[in-house]
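Reopening this ticket.

The earlier resolution said the output was attached, but the attachment link was broken on my side. Pasting everything inline this time so it's all in one place.
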Amino acid sequence: MRPDENSEALTDSAPLTGSTVFIDATLFMGMHSKDDAVRVAAKSFFADRLAAGTAGRVVMSWEQVGRCDDLVWGYERGVQDDYYPFMDVLHTDLAIDRIAYDEADVRLALTAPELDGLPTHERLLLAQVIGRGGTLYTASPRLLGTSGLPVVPIAGPGAAAPAEEPSFPAYLEDLYRRSLVLTVVSEAL
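Inline output:
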């Protein structure tokens, strides 16, 4: 069942943290950050969620999926061809619910004072998170500078990279290594 069809599914979908876990494009693309602390922390997040099976379920808005594509499409075709097999397999194998914004999300995005000053795409995303009682895991430098919002940083500014990099299952790790021809600076996230 899709989480946007049943709010109970959202509440029960993230037992690893106690609330619905939302991710954004900065976290997904963070696995390809030039900053090793961000890259390894983001990879660790996804490796752990994948290993947890359905208990590792995450939610991502359609717009955030599109923001990943938009960033990747800015690279030359050969880089895209090396990147996309990893993205495709992870999106297939990870317990991930991709959902649309609804009218309540739009209303909240435009009226919630705590969202004032954020770009529209972040207002919409955070309205979706708040409206569903979730928590957003992010690598967004801008969102990491906010307070009072349900946002968890994947790696703080200036954080050291973990001593040991986690691995995906072998079939996915091979695709991940190949996909690292694409790297992004944190500001592009």
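Reporter confirms the inline version is readable. Strands lie at 21-23, 58-61, 96-99, 135-138, 151-153. The first helix runs from residue 7 to 12.
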